Amino acid sequence: MGFIFLMNGGILDNPPDVVLFFGRFHPVVVHLPIGFLIMAILAQLATRWPKYKLLEIYLPLMWLMGAFSALLAVVFGYFLSLSGGYDEDTLFWHQWGGIAVMLLSFGCYLINKKSSKILSIPKWTMVVIVGLLLMFTGHMGGNLTHGATYLLEYAPNPVRNMAGLPSKVVPREKVTVLDSADVFLDLVLPMMQTKCVSCHNEGKRKGGLLLTTYADMMLGGESGNTIIPGDAIKSELVRRITLPMAHDDFMPSEGKLPMTDQEVLLIQWWIKMGAPPSGYVTQLDKEKTLTSLVSNYLGLDKNSLFNKKVPLPNQAVVETLLGNGFVINPLMKDNYFLEANFSLSEYDLKASDMDTLLELKEQLVWLNLGNSNIKDAYLEKIGLLQNLVKLDLSGNEITDHGLKYLSKLENLESLNLYGTKVSKGVLELVPHLTRLKKIYLWQSEVSKETITQLKEQYPGLTIIFERD
Ligand code: HEC
């Protein structure tokens, strides 16, 4: 009675940690019998040639090492199986295959011991059977960890078809224009494939959850609320990927590479939109709040500016700026893009310097005018430097009046307004700066409310507001 109780309600359903601990060693230990037994099999077959006859005396030892390490692997494997989540059929065959290998190895030990006359089966048949069983068991074990389709994933189609698998699906073409990006097929599914399916596949179904196809994802796992279309907050999947990483429930578990902030945002958005099986991002995203996030994620927003050939800068203009206190540097080896920096200068910036800068309109991509006593009026000229990618205006007395001049800077990716007097005006500027990725607003007059509003409207934008 007591024993039955133990098996049914106790140790099996709730294995103590130490058991699970040893279970985790199964994948390591299992390589020992594989090695020993292959060695024994080869040695056994080799003794059929007179040249290798002398190996015979070592055979019992080899088989015994194989058998005992197989026993260890069986015990640890059993412990591991108690942690659950494995495909039952595959587990059944793997488990009994392993036990058979172990028993037959002891058998091979016995028939090789000179003294024993218990078995008179031809040795080589036993050996071949152990070899085949070993392969079978190993293969089943591989299916358990990687899923049944793992081995032949990249096999040629005829091989796949022979194994009863469908021909390889032609991989989805890489998205090259934002308008062709599909919310599920190009965003959500690839994320699952890289970060989640290693544990949520046919063979491993952890938490009862499969993340391999849309249908399986929607079926969900044990919680019953894995994905609730339209309600990201109540969806268990979102909870799992937004927990602190140290939390027991955090996914992916076991320290695997977590989702990035961008990925989390995209999944939350997809669920909010009703978790559709497909649909163009640009059509679903009516307010265009995700445009920059998605194109950034898919690597579509490489600034084509840098592919342009710009002419050699006018040397006299460069000399004038250098003389007026600017530091000017070429940015790349194979073109003429320039960086200009006045932030460390001892000179005073003059209004006429703005006109001189304009003569480098094509070449100037980085401009640092931090702490340079810039006035709102100066920004009118700066707003004409259309190739600017990075602009630093920190520490200047500029306000919203000046900001509006910057709305033509379509290449701008980074804008530093740290320590300026700008406030709500950023709300009107940011929509024009379609490439903007980063904006510094710390110690400006921008209010917390404005920041919240910006964050909501532009989830892909990095806003530096307060120090962490
Ligand atoms: C290293 C293995 C591993 C990886 C990788 C992994 N998971 Fe899990 N997952 C588990 C295990 C084990 C469980 C069951 C235990 C638990 O509930 O915490 C689980 C459970 C879950 C559950 C709860 C199932 C339900 O609805 O009841 C969700 C949701 C989940 N995982 C999502 C994910 C997502 C999303 C990823 C990818 C970011 C991921 N997992 C990656 C191992 C993993």
UniProtKB/TrEMBL annotation:
The chain crosses the membrane at residues 25-45, 57-80, 92-112, 124-142. Residues 25-145 form the DUF2231 domain. The keyword Amino-acid biosynthesis does not apply. Gene3D superfamilies: Ribonuclease Inhibitor (3.80.10.10). InterPro entries: Cyt_c_Planctomycete-type, DUF2231_TM, Leu-rich_rpt, LRR_dom_sf. The keyword Protein transport does not apply. Keywords: Membrane, Transmembrane, Transmembrane helix. It comes from the Bacteria. Residues 196-252 form the Cytochrome C Planctomycete-type domain. This is Uncharacterized membrane protein. It comes from Arenibacter troitsensis. The lineage of its organism: Bacteria, Pseudomonadati, Bacteroidota, Flavobacteriia, Flavobacteriales.
